[in-house]
């Protein structure tokens, strides 16, 4: 079984990627682009899947991280894919992900400082 810190890194990296995908587009361009929509949704699914695998101990120690919302979105997107509200996906990608990334970075630094320091290093 993978360790919590690996799931947290997956979440942080996926959030960063999704944020980058929408960085230079407006909502209209996002809604018109199947490519960008698919890319962002895939990263949101990674975030939701990884969040669901983080141990209950970590989730309990960090109740301000929206674990249930993140995993809930993933479940809805996977099971009701043809009903995805792309305006909600846009809002998540352009607002909620930044805050989530900050929360996860704080968590990673507190719980796994060595991993957090490696994440800050250029590849």
UniProtKB/TrEMBL annotation:
Keyword Repeat listed: no
GO terms assigned for molecular function: hydrolase activity; nucleotide binding; RNA nuclease activity
Signal peptide: none
Gene3D superfamilies: bsu32300-like
Protein name as it appears in the record: DUF86 domain-containing protein
Keywords for the protein's UniProt record, in alphabetical order: Hydrolase, Nuclease, Nucleotide-binding, Phosphoprotein, Toxin-antitoxin system
Coiled coil stretches, renumbered: none
Annotated family: Belongs to the HepT RNase toxin family.
PANTHER family to which the protein is assigned, alphabetical: RNASE MJ1380-RELATED (PTHR34139:SF1), UPF0331 PROTEIN MJ0127 (PTHR34139)
Lineage of the species this protein comes from: Bacteria, Bacillati, Actinomycetota, Actinomycetes, Frankiales
Keyword Phosphoprotein: yes
Superkingdom as given in the UniProt entry: Bacteria
Gene Ontology cellular-component terms listed: toxin-antitoxin complex
């Amino acid at each position: 079984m993978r360790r919590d810190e690996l799931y947290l890194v997956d979440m942080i990296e996926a959030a960063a990627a999704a944020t980058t995908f929408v960085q230079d587009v407006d909502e209209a361009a996002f809604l018109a682009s199947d490519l960008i929509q698919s890319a962002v949704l895939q990263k949101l699914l990674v975030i939701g899947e990884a969040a669901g695998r983080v141990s209950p101990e970590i989730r309990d120690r960090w109740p301000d991280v929206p674990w249930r919302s993140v995993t809930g979105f993933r479940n809805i997107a996977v099971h009701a894919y043809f009903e995805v509200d792309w305006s909600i996906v846009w809002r998540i990608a352009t607002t909620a992900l930044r805050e989530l990334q900050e929360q996860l970075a704080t968590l990673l630094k507190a719980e796994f400082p060595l991993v957090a320091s490696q994440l800050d290093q250029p590849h």
